[in-house]
Amino acid sequence: MFVHGFDPLSGVIWVRGIALGPQGERELRLILDTGTPVTVLNTAAADDRGDSARMATERTHLIGVDGVQAGYRLSRDRLDVLGFSIDGCGLLCHDFDDRLNVHGLIGMDPLAGRLVTIDGLQGLLTVEP
């Protein structure tokens, strides 16, 4: 079981992740976003880590409040997040506003089949297999 404290007054649940790919392990500063269906990496964070659109396995599009945004999918050997590992995962890469200071969003895809509890009173996130 993964238990993670957060500040319930901040409105954001920050979590740490590690992506393993061709350049080795990369630490990520992520936000848990249960309104996002898939996990998304900021293209600037991908570029800073030596990844690029040239390494993409496919082109992607996300539809958000600002309209349609083009991006790409990177294949990672492993993503460690929320206390477990996901082997052979794909991360979508799209542009984020630099003022957010975030490497990406953890979407609902790694949460499928798991019990997730967000305690907004105590500031605890619990993820069970």
State the main characteristics:
single chain; Cathepsin D, subunit A, domain 1; 5% helix; six-stranded mixed β-barrel; mainly beta; 129 residues
Task: Please tell me about this protein's structure.
By secondary structure, the chain is mainly β. It has one helix at 43-48; strands at 2-5, 14-21, 24-32, 40-42, 58-64, 67-81, 84-94, 104-106, 115-119, 124-128. The mean pLDDT is 87. The strands form 2 sheets. The chain has a 6-stranded mixed beta barrel. A 3-stranded antiparallel beta sheet has the order 1-10-9, with no helix packed on it. It has a single domain, classed as Acid Proteases (Cathepsin D, subunit A, domain 1). The protein is built from 1 helix and 10 strands; from the N terminus they run ββββαββββββ. Strand 2 (14-21) and strand 3 (24-32) form a beta hairpin. 5% of the residues lie in helices and 54% in strands.
CATH superfamily: Acid Proteases
* Mean pLDDT over the residues: 87
Which stretches of 5+ consecutive residues score pLDDT under 50?
none
Rounded to an integer in angstroms, the radius of gyration calculated over CA atoms is 14 Å
Q: Label the CATH architecture.
A: Beta Barrel
Strand numbers in spatial order across the main sheet: 2-3-8-4-7-6
Count of β-strands: 10
User: Between the first and last Cα atoms, what is the distance in angstroms?
Assistant: 7 Å
Total number of distinct structural domains: 1
The helix content is: under 10%
What's the helix count? Answer: 1
Q: Proportion of β residues?
A: over 45%
- H/E order of the elements? EEEEHEEEEEE
Structural class: mainly beta
Largest sheet: 6 strands, mixed, barrel
- The backbone outline, from C-alpha atoms, is globular
CATH topology: Cathepsin D, subunit A, domain 1
